[in-house]
Amino acid sequence: MKNISILGATGSIGRNTLDLIQRERDKLKVVGLTGANNIRLLAESAIKFNADIVATSNDNKFHDLKEMLSGYQVEVCAGINGVLEVASRQVDWVMSSIVGSAGLLPGLKALEAGANLALANKESMVAAGPIMKRVAEAQGVKLIPVDSEHSAISQVIRGEERDSLSKIIITASGGAFRNLTISELIDVTPEQASKHPNWDMGQRITIDSASLFNKALEIIEAKEFFGLKASEIEVLIHPQSLVHAIACFCDSGMKAHIGPSDMRHAIAYALYEEKRFNLPLEEVDLSKVGTLDFEKPDLLKYPALKLGFDVLEQGGLAGAAFNAAKEEALDNFLDHKLSFLGMADVVRATMDELSSKNQLSSEVELEAVIDIDRQARLIAKIFVDKF
Ligand code: NDP
Ligand code: MG
Q1: 118: nearest Cα among 233, 236, 259, 20
Q2: CB-based pocket (< 6 A), ligand 1
């Protein structure tokens, strides 16, 4: 029996993970589940999967959650300490699928407790990749990519020599506004940005896909997972979202990963630790697809991507600052206090401010990451009023 916990069980990735577990209940046992505000789904999942412990990160929801689970043999806790308690339970495999930097400490706790960590929470790799890798190595556990592009990269480079790899191409759908011009982007709303053409995901990553902030995070995530330099990563807009990554080799050969736009493919690959599982997903019918398009992204239209490459080159604490400033900018866009294009302006101004004070070059240690995260949010808040 493989013991499993899911951090962020009520979200898009969490629900897809539970869907896979449901298919193999005789081999997979759910130990812990966490959520934040959707405690009804959290309670239902705890009952359905017979979990041992659940936590809501929202202290105010504790009593309601406890009441929903009264009469069931399940430990209920709340707040960040509750989430960390779930993360610290000894299991074989943990899905890290909390959204945002809130996923960092729980993911680290799971690694420290000796679990193999499937990482959907790209923000923790962007902010603290070196720490995540160090802890995983010290514990002798695996850090497994779940992001579809990174799962795809791990599949196409498998069995290849590192020296023979010349470049990785990561694809981006172009998000909700792929066909809009820069001037048409001026007035777009959070509601419009929340509609992804190909993927069904949480709201924040969907908006980040429209701005390409998501792709900016992903190139940094790729650097951390696969030891790639900026010059070894290319991003191409690929509207069909079927080719997720392409590895280019020194002999001019290329290997592409093609798969459905369904996260259960990448989650299953992580769940079964790189073994293939018979999934009832609809195969991509290339004869029906007909054409696969690729084009270079327009960096004027997608300034976030240029920022992402700068951060990748900068290293140090730049990733943590970038992610925090981006989260603050996104919160303000969602609150209609900042325009869609203003998000990149705020993040750039925040990064310039921190760089000019030489704040980003320190070693990536946890305390420094938490501190720069706090500073970046405060500075970004100030810039929100200026843009
Ligand atoms: P969702 O918004 O759908 O789910 C987020 C999860 O995190 C929910 O369980 C939510 O609880 C919980 N949560 C929210 N805020 C907090 C907090 N402060 N503390 C603890 N838990 C919290 O997001 P997704 O599933 O789309 O994304 C999850 C992660 O996976 C992100 O890092 C995203 O970038 C990454 N990812 C997602 C993909 C996708 O297809 N969705 C693809 C690749 C990566 P509740 O709902 O109960 O409030
Ligand atoms: Mg992705």
Answers
A1: 20
A2: 8-14, 35-38, 57, 83, 97-99, 102, 120-123, 147, 199, 201-202, 204-205, 263
